[in-house]
Amino acid sequence: MTIRTKFTETFGVEHPIAQGGMQWVGRAELVAAVANAGALGFITALTQPTPADLANEIAKTRDLTDKPFGVNLTILPAINPPPYDEYRQVIVDAGIKIVETAGSNPAPHLPMFHDNGIKVLHKCTSVRHAVKAQSLGVDGISIDGFECAGHPGEDDVPGLVLIPAAADKIEIPMIASGGFADARGLVAALALGADGINMGSRFMCTVESCIHQNVKEAIVAGDERGTELIFRSLHNTARVASNEVSREVVQILKDGGQFEDVKDLVAGVRGRKVFDDGDIDAGIWTVGTAMGLINDIPTVGELVSRIVGEAEQLITGRLGEMVTPTAARV
Ligand SMILES: Cc1cc2nc3c(=O)[nH]c(=O)nc-3n(C[C@H](O)[C@H](O)[C@H](O)COP(=O)(O)O)c2cc1C
């Protein structure tokens, strides 16, 4: 049995599950494992230091899978922006057919992607941005609720409201993210009107994810309260793991500090050390409230087949059994 949705049909994957872009984590081994499991994985373009490195990472992924996969292009305001046009050109030249855009309006990138037969799944955190992206002509929406790892936006609307509110206005395929980690989440997302789920934290904690084992074990040991929201006062909120560094950042900004005052604490090189060396207090690292639902470190294949299998059982079993035909109710 399989679960077919508008998302699986449009994006040509077996299961209604995506692995969204993840800085430092979305690399060839993980993305290929997700593809081989029948879900949709995205290489994170900006994890690669140069566009040429992205081309190599795409080639490496192709060596590991012949199934479809995509590339995430996160467009964030920066003092020295990366060469987005060059990364985009590499994506096109490599023959990638699915791109996940995130961070800001995808309009400048759409014509080139569409002219080259690339489908665009735009990730956003509010109904109004989803509606805007739909009107721009993207091929799918990925709506990320307040529970999510990374940037939840500034509206603080959790998935239970965000997903159905978006579903009321979105006609193209839409997947939901933020706090999804198991079959119950997938079934709930489908019930709320989504066509599938996108997961970050859950895929981060798998055998094929190339981060240090200590980080995976910290996720398993942690619970749903184990995150902090940093940069609130700067209107650039990010949900990250609660540790010595993130708690200090929260305090400094609460006391009226500015970005300059926390710049060194939040430096990317420090966060990178967490993933590479396994020192979970070395810097800022990203994870979501889904941590409270993550209790093991399975292979990606085991994880995807567990989620899909249990979702099917849940729909046809527990939920199906709750429904009694009206005539039988006396
Ligand atoms: C370690 C990590 C890094 C992330 N980096 C990015 C990124 O660079 N670009 C992006 O669009 N989303 C990024 N995300 C967000 C994920 O793609 C996804 O939207 C999010 O994790 C969903 O919430 P969940 O963690 O509750 O599943 C990141 C998430 C994690 C856990």
From TrEMBL:
Any GO molecular function: monooxygenase activity
Organism superkingdom: Bacteria
Entry annotated with the keyword Metal-binding: no
Bilayer-crossing regions: none
Pfam families given in the database record: NMO
Keywords from the UniProt entry: Flavoprotein, FMN, Monooxygenase, Oxidoreductase
Descriptive protein name: Nitronate monooxygenase family protein
